[in-house]
Amino acid sequence: MSAHNILVVVGLLAFASYVAYATDPTQLQDFCVGANDPNNALFVNGLFCKNPMDVTPEDFFRGGLDKPGNTHNNLGFNVSLVSATQLPGLNTLGISLARIDYAPYGLNPPHIHPRATEILTVIEGTLYVGFVTSNLPGGGNKFFAKVLDKGDVFVFPQGLIHFQFNVGKIPAIAIAGLSSQNPGTTTIGNAVFGAQPPISIDVLSKAFQLDEKVIEYLQSQFWMSTN
Ligand SMILES: *[C@@H]1O[C@H](CO)[C@@H](O)[C@H](O)[C@H]1NC(C)=O
Predict the structure, then answer these.
(1) Cβ neighbours around 129 below 10 Å, total
(2) Which residue, judged by its Cα, is nearest atom 11 of ligand 1?
(3) Tens digits of per-residue pLDDT, 10-67?
(4) d(CA 79, ligand 1 centre) in Å
(5) Domain range summary for the chain, segments of one domain joined by +
(6) How many whole angstroms from 39 Cα to the centroid of ligand 1?
(7) What topology does CATH give the domain 59-220?
(8) Which atom of ligand 1 is nearest to the CA of 69?
(9) CB-based contact 194:224 (threshold 8 Å)
(10) SS in 3 state form for 34-45?
(11) Which protein residues touch ligand 1 with a CB less than 6 Å away?
(12) Pick from 79, 94, 104, 90: nearest CA to 183
């Protein structure tokens, strides 16, 4: 291989690794406030943006996070998400925020954010939190967990299964930053046992080493939507 060809290969590899690590696209403009009406919008970088001349401070604003979400549900928790859907000014900016309320012993059940790392701080109460690695080279999955008090910060790396459990006797509050304007959530129980149409009982009973009756039972449960 000539020196020139080697340089081309090295260049391509560098480019490939750049692409592999990229997340939200690099911005092409200061902001691209999401527009619902394409007729009144510009098309930039694959997304509709509101005409900058029509953008107002309200496009970058969302109030109401001082109010607790209603935790009167099966799991005893509630996520108030502020993503590009709730705050159009976040479009293309690669970041979002959530307030999470937990009733005493409330649980934010094991879930994944396919597109975001999450950094969480406890504002009130005590949370037992944890995440599990993807499959390690030798097999197995390592579990990292910690009890967090008010003011503590913990990070859940992108794409890994994680949870938060209120182990205190009082309601807890956390604020989470997420490294995507649209982090997405896959709640493990819902996705596996609550998918519609249902995943075949043969598949689930073999995968989880459970009797088919147990799978039927799990599939018949109510899997609360937890966005
Ligand atoms: C979360 O709280 C909001 C505001 O109180 C409420 O409208 C919503 O139904 C709650 N979600 C769940 C899953 O309980």
Answers:
(1) 22
(2) 78
(3) 554 454 544 455 566 666 677 788 887 777 777 655 567 888 899 999 999 999 999 9
(4) 8
(5) 59-220
(6) 33
(7) Jelly Rolls (2.60.120)
(8) 2
(9) no
(10) ECCCHHHEEEEC
(11) 69-70, 73, 78
(12) 94
Minimum mean pLDDT range among 32-41, 132-141, 155-164, 193-202: 32-41
SS3 163: strand
Residue with tokens 């993807």: 134
pTM of the model: 0.83
Q: Are 34 and 48 in contact (CB under 8 A)?
A: yes
Please give the Cα distance from 22 to 91 (Å, whole number): 17
Determine the Cα–Cα distance for residues 169 and 71; give it in Å rounded to an integer. Answer: 14
Residue 118 is labelled as binding a ligand: yes
Token code pair at residue 115? 């597109």
> Which ligand 1 atom is the nearest neighbour of the CA of 72?
14
The tokens describing 163, both together, are 């949870």
Encoded amino acid at 86, one letter: Q
